[in-house]
Design brief:
Elements lengths: L12 E6 L1 H9 L3 H10 L8 E5 L5 E7 L3 H5 L15 E5 L8 H10 L15 E3 L7 H19 L7 H15 L2 E6 L2 H4 L3 H7 L7 E7 L5 E6 L1 E5 L8 H4 L7 H15 L5 E11 L11 E3 L5 E3 L7 H13 L5 E6 L3 H7 L4 E5 L2 H14 L3 E4 L16 E2 L8 H10 L7 E5 L3 E2 L9 E2 L4 H12 L2
Parallel strand pairs: 1-3, 1-4, 4-5, 8-10, 8-13, 9-10, 12-16, 13-17, 14-15
Antiparallel strand pairs: 2-3, 6-7, 7-10, 11-12, 14-17, 18-19
Helix pairs in contact: 4-5, 5-10, 8-11, 10-15, 11-14, 13-15
Length: 460
Amino acid sequence: MPLTFAPPTSDATPLYAITPEGLEDWLATQPDSIKAWIGSAGFKASLGAVVLLPDTEGGVSGTVVGLGSAKTRARSRFVLAASAKSLPEGTYALANDLADLDLETEALGWLLAGYAFDRYAKASGASARLVCPEGLKPARIEAIAAGEVLTRDLINTPANDMGPDQLEAATHSLADQFGATVSVTKGADLIEQNFPMIHAVGRAASQAPRLLDMRWGGTGPTLTLVGKGVCFDTGGLNLKPGASMGLMKKDMGGAATVLGLAHMIMALKLPLKLRVLIPAVENSVSADAFRPGDILTSRKGLTVEINNTDAEGRLVLADALALAAEENPDQLISMATLTGAARVAVGPDLSPYYTDDTAMAAALNEAAQAVADPVWRMPFWEPYEKMIEPGIADLDNAPKGGFAGSITAALFLRRFAEGQNYTHFDIYGWNPTAAPARSKGGVGMGARAILAALPKILDI
């Protein structure tokens, strides 16, 4: 169901969002009956606390929700949304200012609190609808929410219903919605069109590997997004243990995230030329699966020694990045659920990213803080370059030793985007614990930060 704001109406229930620090001042403006009611409820304005205010006829005249202490707010993203699921179904209108909070972010959080993945079983998010607060642009916030919903739905869908075929269909559907075009290079054509590593990784699967290439927009600066579309990752012949394979439906989280971001860009009609490249494969085991010890030649001509078939994402991204670099876009950004090392480094909440562009980093960091989409800059650490040079080939896809796994993967990718304004995100794409506006499961990471930074980094 689309996540949209309720239309303005005089019947909307007033919603007072109060901090513990501001509770006393707010109560001072209320009649004695409300003071007594709040006191009897033991309301302290803790995060997510709700008190319904009665009218004289036994109905609800308003509601008061808690935003939590300053410390709690600093540790949370969408504090207004924390109360959304506790409210009765109905329409609510914010009745006071949200001091020190970004209103657009909080309104977006309320919409996202309504999300539930219900394709296979009944599920529901918050049913309380919010009138878009005054001064905001509802269509903008709804477009961002819709992009996030697309990302979550794609990641949450299991591989039996979200293989390369279905990921291609989802890309076509998005393109049709906004008048974009899609070209597809598939199966043996990948060899003929010089995408050998995409083919090698995906050739053992029942659904053919492919490269999806979507374009939109006719004027403005050029932005190319590359998303890892490994629809399921067994690890290949270096087979993952069962516990590590359980979440591998999310290994196309990079593709899902760039498609969600593309939705936002196109829905908001940003004045730029957009290209989205998705190598869509499954890393499976079969007689013709690629092997440890194989040496592959990439689109760029660099040779790669395969020391672990479970380090396949960087291989398919490498061919796509090489293609992207041939057009020399103004900004080139890749997004991938690439390494477990990134999760060890920063956990599931932060989106680690790599860039040599200090202006890009400054814009991303500022935007991420503004829209509650946290990112963390990681280093392209030059001394580690030798770790990805095995001697027998130009590059090693899985350096031994286990040190700096996310950094060496990013350095590997940079070899294929050489000479570009290039940024790489090593995201997780999964929320392991439910939080306000962030249900357990697939989640977009970094997309809203990029969206907010685009006007500055592309001068649009």
